[in-house]
Design a protein that fits this description.
Low-confidence stretches: none
Pfam families: ABC_tran, oligo_HPY
Strand content: 15-25%
CATH superfamily: P-loop containing nucleotide triphosphate hydrolases
Keywords: ATP-binding, Cell membrane, Membrane, Nucleotide-binding, Transport
Mean pLDDT: 91
Radius of gyration: 21 Å
Number of strands: 12
Membrane topology: Peripheral membrane protein
CATH architecture: 3-Layer(aba) Sandwich
Strand order of the largest sheet: 6-7-8-3-9-10-12-11
Subcellular location: Cell membrane
Number of helices: 12
Main location: membrane
Number of domains: 1
Structural class: alpha/beta
CATH topology: Rossmann fold
Helix content: 25-40%
């Protein structure tokens, strides 16, 4: 029996109206699902649309941005039909998010304990005493050795890694169905990064959550993801399992990302690089959005943007190199 997705995003378009003439198509027709207990990673360079996708799901897009089309279903509920008040009940309870910089996400004037208790009591009918006990337990679960003392600490009193652990405690406090982690370890040193990502994997198992992991780090993807979505120019250009993304890469952009990684298996004098830069979201090329940087570009690539097509079982790519094979 096929699993019903926790999250089903279809035809999502999020545009930013910069002035009368200029529209930035930050997310432009994105489709994907996240199944129960699955970790799906969205990968791409800065400016590819990863974070805007996650903020669209959370309904946190502010003017001049706007979700103009598509559906975002959390189980059977289309989040785009929800009012601001309804979304306030859903955020933190059914769907939670960890941001890449906890210092901006945590409130500097409230203690860590107050912030966890407030989140719990906002969504659960718990007394202050029970909410406090749960908050202490959560801090222990995410690795605070002095959980009771930490309840009285303010964010500035904690290290970066401990602040991120506090954010995770808040995010999992109501046992959400879906956890979105937007570059959750970027601002941390390598050792702490690994600890935070291991903790997220542990929390996924403990609370049976699905995770949508936003990252630019393919090493993180290899270690923690089940399925991968590669984004470029506001669209998904490749989608497959984590094994296939490394063993049988299809899209030239993904190949370029992998070539830029250092390897212990082969001798390298210098790392590969993708020429040029990601085009601005208000000035994508007319055809394939990767055409200005692609080593395999053909005449038709300049004329029409290819569709995201099945090129193999469990493997999609948005590239004319595979159109004949897919039809």
């Amino acid at each position: 029996m096929e699993q019903k997705p926790v999250l089903d995003v279809a035809g999502l378009k999020t545009y930013f109206y910069l002035d009368d003439q200029m529209v930035a198509k930050a997310v432009d027709g994105v489709d994907f699902t996240v199944n129960p207990g699955e970790t799906v990673a969205i990968v791409g360079e800065s400016g590819s649309g990863k974070s805007v996708t996650s903020l669209s799901i959370m309904q946190l897009i502010n003017k001049p941005g706007e979700v103009i089309d598509g559906t975002i279903k959390l189980e059977d509920e289309n989040l785009l039909n929800k009012s601001a008040k309804q979304m306030t009940k859903i955020r933190g309870n059914d769907i939670a998010m960890i941001f890449q910089e906890p210092m901006t996400a945590l409130n500097p004037v409230y203690t860590i304990g107050n912030q966890i208790i407030e989140t719990i009591r906002k969504h659960k009918k718990f007394s202050k005493e029970i909410a406090r006990e749960k908050a202490i337990e959560l801090l222990k679960v995410v690795g605070f050795p002095r959980a009771e003392e930490t309840m009285n600490d303010y964010p500035h009193q904690l290290s970066g890694g401990m602040r991120q652990r506090a954010m995770i405690a808040i995010a999992i406090s109501c046992e959400p169905k879906l956890l979105i982690a937007d570059e959750p370890s970027t601002a941390l040193d390598v050792t702490i990064q690994a600890q935070i990502l291991d903790l997220l994997a542990e929390m996924k198992e403990k609370f049976e959550m699905a995770i949508l992991l936003i990252t630019h780090d393919l090493g993180v993807v290899a270690e923690y993801a089940d399925r991968v979505l590669v984004m470029y120019g506001g669209q998904i250009v490749e989608e497959t399992t984590v094994e296939k993304i490394f063993e049988d890469t299809k899209h030239p952009y993904t190949i370029g990302l992998l070539d830029s990684l250092p390897s212990l298996e082969k001798e390298m004098t210098r790392l590969g690089a993708i020429k040029g830069t990601v085009p601005a979201a208000h000035s994508f090329p007319e055809g394939c959005r990767f055409s200005t940087r692609c080593p395999h570009v053909m005449e038709r690539c300049y004329k029409k943007n290819p569709d995201l097509l099945d090129v193999e079982a469990d493997h999609k790519a948005r590239c004319y190199l595979y159109v004949e094979e897919a039809t």
